[in-house]
Design goal:
CATH topology: Rossmann fold
Number of helices: 10
Shape: globular
InterPro entries: KR_dom, NAD(P)-bd_dom_sf, Sc_DH/Rdtase_CS, SDR_fam
Family: Belongs to the short-chain dehydrogenases/reductases (SDR) family.
Strand order of the largest sheet: 3-2-1-4-5-6-7
Keywords: Oxidoreductase
Radius of gyration: 17 Å
Protein name: SDR family NAD(P)-dependent oxidoreductase
Strand content: 15-25%
Number of domains: 1
Domain Ketoreductase: 7-174
CATH superfamily: NAD(P)-binding Rossmann-like Domain
Largest sheet: 7 strands, parallel
Helix content: 40-55%
CATH architecture: 3-Layer(aba) Sandwich
Length: 251
């Protein structure tokens, strides 16, 4: 007796952190999985989850095209666009890589796969932004700006696709216990080092539930994160920029 066809989920940035936990959520809920990331840790994730691993650098057009080629002839039921990095403002090379990964590749892969979803009349998309989209980010200026871009693009995409059977949800986590700060050399900052952080598994669980419910946005996961997001929307930029700068300034 053959197994019934399982829905397919594609998760980028799946080798660690929120992306890894999102992949686990999809796996627990019976999805067939394609997971993508640049680093070698992806192999172990793919093996553990029984997923198809695609090791590509999504900061390049070639990497996006390679991932798309691996799934273009299969219907993608759910797409989690989670790949992203942060960068210090004194690291220009990494800032430019951040723009390529967090912004350009987001648009490139989203446009390729949502066009196919819309043609099929169904699909769900999760875009990982951040609560920092709401305020300036001294010492990590490009990162905060990229997350404002991700949120705006995601909500705009939602309205473009809503009459085509495709739902888009924007995830806005706060500081989360992932390797993102260490990879950018930000572990000496208050934000990267001392500040309490949410568990990526809790963020992913709330994100998955919001995606399946078709919500526009989800702020995850802790009460502190939700409160920070709410308060930041009412404070002047001069205030939020000063507070953010204190948290992200290298010590």
């Amino acid at each position: 007796m053959t197994e019934p066809h399982r829905p397919l989920a594609v998760v980028t940035g799946a080798s660690s952190g929120i992306g890894l936990e999102l992949a686990r959520e999809f796996s627990r809920h019976g999805f067939e999985l394609v997971v993508a990331a640049e680093d070698d840790g992806l192999r172990a994730v793919a093996d553990a989850l029984g997923a198809e691993g695609v090791q590509v650098d999504l900061a390049t057009p070639a990497g996006v095209e390679e991932l798309h080629a691996r799934v273009r002839h299969r219907h993608v039921t759910a797409l989690a666009l989670n790949a992203g990095i942060t960068a210090r403002s004194d690291d220009l090379d990494r800032e430019l890589e951040l723009v390529d990964l967090n912004c350009r590749s987001l648009v490139h892969l989203a446009r390729l796969l949502t066009a196919e979803m819309a043609a099929a009349g169904r699909g769900r998309v999760l875009i990982t932004a951040s609560i920092v989209e709401a305020f300036p980010g001294p010492h990590q200026a490009a990162y905060n700006a990229s997350k404002a871009f991700a949120r705006s693009f995601g909500i705009s995409l939602r309205h473009e696709l809503r009459d085509h059977g495709v739902s888009v949800t924007v995830l806005e986590p706060g500081a989360t216990d992932t390797p993102i700060f260490a990879k950018a050399g930000q572990e000496t900052t208050i934000l990267g080092g001392d500040m309490p952080k949410d568990e990526p598994s809790e963020v992913a669980q709330q994100a998955f539930e919001a995606l399946m419910a078709g919500r526009e946005t989800v702020v995850a996961a802790s009460t502190l994160t939700k409160a920070t997001h709410l308060v930041s929307r009412f404070l002047p930029d001069a205030v939020t920029a000063r507070v953010s700068g204190l948290l992200t300034k290298p010590r």
